[in-house]
Amino acid sequence: MTERLDWADPTIREWDCTVVWSDPEAGIVLDRSAFYPGGGGQPPDHGVLLWEGVQTRIVDTRRTPDDLYLLPAPGDPVPAAGTAVRGAIDDARRSSLMRTHSGLHILCGTVFRDFGALVTGGNMQPGEARMDFNLPEVPPSFKQALEDAVNAEIVADRKIVARVLPREEALAIPTLIRTQDALPPLENPEIRVIDIVGLDVQADGGTHVASTKQVGRVEVAKVESKGRQNRRVRIRLVD
After folding, report:
1. Reduced to 3 states, what is the DSSP secondary structure of residue 214?
2. Cα–Cα distance measured from residue 53 to residue 62, given in angstroms and rounded to the nearest whole number
3. What is the pLDDT of residues 115-138, one digit of tens each?
4. What angle in degrees, to the nearest 10, is found between the helix axes of 91-115 and 142-155?
5. What is the DSSP string of 3-20?
6. Distance separating alpha carbons of residues 213 and 207, to the nearest angstrom
7. Second label for 87, Cα 20 to 30 Å away, from 35, 119, 125, 198?
8. What are phi and psi of 15, to 5 degrees?
9. Helix (H), strand (E), coil (C) string for 121-166
């Protein structure tokens, strides 16, 4: 399977690799890749493959149980199996998504700490996101109080650490699963864990910044009611 450089080091933006398999419609498989393939609400990376003076734009990723298939832009040339290529990720998009994803984890940890609420859904795009919580009631000052609490955690400059733990060890963490009615895939012998030290520990496969301060200031743009039990919190990066 493709070696996941995005898990090993989320700051990698360019790297050398080799095409293992390719098809213009099915996609391109690399021996090693820093493209985040999407999942857990985080969209896939965009970027390019550079080879023999040619550029192939990567606009999406298809995941299968066996591997990751990078999808080229329609009409772009596709390198054949065995071709040495250089991968390059759209830095602005990835960096914004990393900040946004870490901001969502800070939001999740803050709401869980202060209200004990689990996540019922979520989604993100570069610079903005939403998260739904099982939160039947909130005080009148909830929106501003939550924004202040989230930004206090950002200013605290907490370290954000990614670890891969044996499944049994990971599931022994009491607050590991913050999504209501969800568990990591049962067939996985290991679970990747994101730890915002002192605030939030949960299973997650996405890319993150190294500390909360790198997120920058977050605005709670809107709090919406989604039925009797759920509140939707919309956030965006403001610097």
Report:
1. helix
2. 26
3. 999 999 999 999 999 999 999 989
4. 120
5. EEHHHH-TT--EEEEEEE
6. 16
7. 125
8. -165, 160
9. EEEEECCEEEEEEECCCCCCCHHHHHHHHHHHHHHCCCEEEEEEEE
pLDDT digits (tens, 9 = 90+) for 87-111: 999 999 999 999 999 999 999 999 9
Average pLDDT, whole number, for the chain? 93
d(CA 77, CA 55): 8
CA proximity to 191, closest of 232, 217, 152, 163: 163
Q: Rounded to whole angstroms, how far apart are CA atoms 202 and 6?
A: 18
- The span from the CA of 135 to the CA of 149, in Å, is 17
How far is residue 42's CA from residue 205's CA, in Å, rounded to a whole number?
9
Q: Is 95 left (phi over 0), alpha (psi -120 to 50) or beta?
A: alpha
The model's confidence at residue 183, banded by pLDDT at 50, 70 and 90, is low
Tokens of 161: 């650490």
User: 103 near 163, Cβ under 8 Å?
Assistant: no
pTM for the whole structure: 0.93
Return left, alpha or beta for 127; rule: phi > 0 is left, psi -120 to 50 is alpha, else beta.
Answer: left
Q: Can you give 17-43 as a three-state secondary structure string?
A: EEEEEEECCCEEEECEECCCCCECCEC
